[in-house]
Design goal:
Layout (H helix, E strand, L loop, with lengths): L1 H7 L4 H15 L6 H30 L6 H20 L9 H32 L1
Length: about 130
């Protein structure tokens, strides 16, 4: 959460994603059109949102006690933090809150929570079958 907070407090976060797009395109010797570069930049930023909140939900689930609602609680923690982080961005120059980002963050958290819940269930079945 601290890392997310620090990253969202940077007024020039777009420059970081521009750098990554340029790094990727030069590494793979790609020459995107300006329109493609804008699309790649957008996909990179939204993919980062999805991924960072998937990781946050996974870490929250790991920290929570085992139980039936563990995965829902992990999703709720990550989604709640996403909303507060977007609110925080309202006070950062050159940044602003968007509900779209909260939605993407929430989907990342849901994907991780669902995947981990399924893996946990499969592991329990395997352990029960081996016993």
């Amino acid at each position: 959460m601290a890392l997310i907070f620090l990253m969202s407090a940077q007024p020039q976060s777009g420059e970081h994603s521009d750098f990554l797009v340029r790094l990727i395109t030069s590494t793979f010797q790609l020459e995107p059109t300006p329109e493609q570069a804008v699309q790649w930049h957008h996909l990179l930023r939204k993919g980062a949102h999805f991924t960072e909140y998937a990781v946050l939900a996974a870490l929250a689930a790991w920290a929570l006690p085992a139980g039936r609602w563990r995965w829902v609680a992990a999703w709720a923690i990550a989604t709640g933090y996403a909303a507060t982080d977007e609110f925080h961005q309202a006070f950062v120059p050159n940044r602003g809150p968007t509900m779209t980002d909260v939605g993407i963050d929430s989907m990342g958290a849901a994907a991780a929570s669902a995947a981990l819940a399924l893996l946990s269930k499969a592991r329990l079945r395997t352990q029960a079958g081996a016993a």
